[in-house]
Amino acid sequence: MHALQLRADYPVLDDLAYLNAGTCGPIPRSSTAAVASLGRQAERHGRGLEHFVTTSHLQAGQRERYARLLGAQPADVALTTSTSEGIVRVLQGLEWHAGDEIVIAEQEHPGLLGPVAALVRRYGVVVRTAPLERIVEAVGPDTKLVACSHVRWTDGTVAPAGLRELGGQVPLLLDGAQAAGAIPIDVAALGCAFYAAPGQKWLCGPIGTGMLWIDPQWQPRVTPVGPTYDNLAAPADGLAAVPWPDARAHDASALSGESSAAAVAAFDVLDDAGWPAVFERATTLAARLGGRLADAGRAVAPRGHSTLVSWSEADPDATRERLAAAGVIVRDLPGPD
Predict the structure, then answer these.
(1) Which end of the chain has fewer CB atoms surrounding its CB within 10 Å, N or C?
(2) At what angle do helices 49-70 and 29-45 cross, to 10 degrees?
(3) Backbone angles phi, psi at 136, to 5 degrees
(4) Bridge-based pairing state of the strands 77-80 and 210-214
(5) Strand partners, 80
(6) pLDDT > 70 in the chain, percent
(7) CA 244, chain centre distance (Å)
(8) 189-200: b (≥16 Cβ within 10 Å) or e
(9) Is this model's pTM higher than 0.85 or not?
(10) pLDDT 10s digits, 53-62
(11) Which residue(s) pair with 212 in the sheet?
C-alpha cells in the first residue's frame, strides 16, 4: 500500500488532519460517485424492477464484504443501520426472565447501555459490571450473557483474549464499533455468539450502515424483531409468511441502494489497499501519536493495540475547537476530561 496514493482517495485530507474516524470516517470520492451513478439511473429510468435488482445486487455485495472482514459466511451476517441496532436485535430477540444476569464492562457505550437498561425495566434482568480487563472473572452461575466492547470507545483498550474461553459457558455479544476496519477480526477466534459493528467509522461508509453476525448455532434462539417484507422468505404468503432461516431475518427494514452503493465503494478502497497494510499503518500511527502526546506532557490513557488515542485536558471543548481552527479534527468525549 502506498500511503499517499490511498490518502488521495479522500478529498477531506487535502485540507485537514482528520483524526475523528472513531465517530465517522472520511468519505472516499468513489462512494460519492457510486451514489451519483445510482441516482442518475433512478432519475432517468425510474425506480422499478431495474432499480431493485441493482439494489439487491449491491446489498449482496455489501453483505459478502462485511462477512469477509469478520471471517464469516455471508448467510450469517445481517445488514443493519448501526452497531446499536445490531445490539438491540440480539437483546430483544433473546428470551429473558426476571433474575437473568447480564455481565457488562465498565465504560461501555450508550449504544449498549441503553438496550441493556431496557431489559432491566421490561423483564427484571440483573446487570453486573466489571472492568473490561477482568470481565471473565465476573462471570458466575447465573450469567446468561456477557456483553462488552471489542475495543473500548473511551481509550482503545482491547477486550481480553480470555473472553474466548466463555464460548462453551455463556454467549458473548461484542460491540465492534471501534474494531471493524481498524484491527483484524475473526469472529470464530474471538469465541463470540454475536458481533455488531458499524459501516460509517473505520470502514468510511455512509451513516446508516452496519452489520450483525450471529453464530449459526445461536440463530434459532434469536427471534427476529419486527420482520417486514425483506425479512420474509415468501412475503406473498401473508400471515403464513415466515422469516428467512438465516441472518437476513435480522436485516434492517428498507435499506437503501444508495447507502449500499456508498458502503461497497468505500470498502473496496481499503480492500484494494490490503487490509493487513491498512491495519498495520493505522495502529502504528495511533501508537506514534500516543507516544508524542506523552512526550509533550499530556496524560495519555492506557490503550491497547488499536486505533484510538485518548488524553486528558483541563478544558476538552476548548482544545477541540483550538485544534479544529488549526485544521485538526478530533472529538472530545462527553463527561470525562
Answers:
(1) C
(2) 160
(3) -60, -40
(4) antiparallel
(5) 210
(6) 99
(7) 23
(8) ebbbbbbbbbbb
(9) yes
(10) 999 999 999 9
(11) 78, 196
- Of 36, 30, 28, 24, the C-alpha closest to 7 is 28
**28 is written with which cell numbers?**
472516499
Averaged confidence pLDDT in the chain: 96
> Is the Cβ–Cβ distance between 35 and 53 less than 8 Å?
no
Contact 144, 101 (CB under 8 A): yes
Helix residue spans in 192-315 (DSSP H): 257-273, 275-295
| Long-range Cβ contacts of 278-285 (<8 Å, 24+ apart) | 278/1, 278/181, 279/182, 279/183, 279/184, 281/1, 281/3, 282/182, 282/202, 282/307, 283/182, 283/183, 283/307
Average pLDDT estimate for 107-131? 97
Domains of the chain: 3-29+274-329 (no CATH), 49-270 (3.40.640.10)
Residues 6+ apart with CB under 8 A from 171: 144, 145, 146, 192, 193, 194, 218
Residues 6+ apart with CB under 8 A from 68: none
- Residue 229 backbone dihedrals phi, psi, to 5 degrees: -45, -55
Q: Which residues contact 259 (CB under 8 A, 6 or more apart)?
A: 205, 206, 208, 209
